[in-house]
Amino acid sequence: MARRKHSSVEEEAEIDMTPMLDIVFIMLIFFIVTTSFVKPSGLDYNKPEASQATKKPSANIFIGVSKTGIIMMENRQVDIERVTANVERMLAEAPEAAVLIQADQEARHGLVVKVLDNVKAAGIDKISVSAGNE
Fold first, then answer.
1. Which of 9, 33, 45, 71 has its CA at a distance of 20 to 30 angstroms from the CA of residue 101?
2. For 17-66, how does the pLDDT look when each residue is reduced to its tens digit (9 = 90+)?
3. DSSP structure class, residue 127
4. Radius of gyration (Cα) for the chain, nearest Å?
5. 107 burial class (0-12, 13-18, 19+ CB within 10 angstroms)?
6. DSSP structure string for the chain
7. How far, in Å, CA of 119 to CA of 80, rounded?
8. Is the pTM of this model over 0.70?
9. What are phi and psi of 124, to 5 degrees?
10. Contact assessment for residue 98 and residue 129, using Cβ atoms and an 8 Å cutoff
11. Predicted pLDDT at 57
């Protein structure tokens, strides 16, 4: 009959950290991917002052209008005729997108209204115009 030999040294309990680290890295990747990043319009502009301006949640689509009539989207210059197509493309990527128009104080009013019309034509109802009250 075989005799069992009992070890006099008891094994120490160890905690395996690998599953916890895997979960932490997966959560980190999830938060990085789901964070919406701020895309600056690429223009230097002076915001008009507004005493009744309110803070809005961050928009996903930024359109900049300079005082010289340059329209910027995604850090590139866009013609007024191409605003609708660009907004539709961005809307396909993010269906719940909102638009923030950042126009210079000295930008032509007619151009800003054309940009607003083109955004509306693309199918977006959530449009904000940036005003400075800081």
1. 33
2. 888 899 999 999 888 887 766 555 555 666 667 676 666 555 578 888 88
3. E
4. 27
5. buried
6. -PPPPPPSSPPPP----HHHHHHHHHHHHHHHHHPPPP---S---PPPB-TT----PPPSEEEEE-TTS-EEETTEEE-GGGHHHHHHHHHHH-TT--EEEEE-TTS-HHHHHHHHHHHHHTT---EEE--B--
7. 11
8. no
9. -105, 130
10. no
11. 53
Q: How far is CA 8 from CA 3, 5, 13, in A?
A: 15, 9, 16
CA distance 119 to 63: 10
Residue 99 has pLDDT above 80, yes or no: yes
Q: Which residue has the tokens 């800081």?
A: 134
Paired tokens of 95? 């269906």
Torsion sign across C-alpha atoms 102, 120, 111, 52? negative
